[in-house]
Amino acid sequence: xxxxxESGGGLVQAGGSLRLSCAASGRTFTSYRMGWFxxxxxxxxxxxxAIRWSDGNTYYANSVKGRFTISRDNAENTVYLQMNSxxxxxxxxxxxxxxxxxxxxxxxxxxxxxxxxxxxVTVSS
Length: 125
Description:
Helix content is 0%, strand content 51%. By secondary structure, the chain is mostly beta strands. Strands 2, 4, 5, 6, 9, 10 and 11 form a 7-stranded mixed β-sheet that branches. It has a 4-stranded antiparallel β-sheet with strand order 1-3-8-7, with no helix packed on it. A hairpin with a 5-residue loop joins strand 5 (46-52) and strand 6 (58-60).
């Protein structure tokens, strides 16, 4: 089906920047939108950002608006998450996800069919 591989995670100081990448392969023609989610230790998985392949329309969680930017490269089948002004609260495992559409709930985990393995982002104070 669709395989997703995240990369770019690491350790960074508060106020720093990091760019995550998600490379999609397989039956990518079934993918309608891509999303980024994150999960911190002891917390539930939460929505971060989403983008539509067709027109690049984006959606963001309020907690990251103005700091994070999601983008896509259709030719490379790759989605990026540029993270600026990072805070310790951003520390989490970040997951890339692919959805085939059929739902307007862009922020819901159930709207996505395939998930990457996750990449760790740690922000120190």
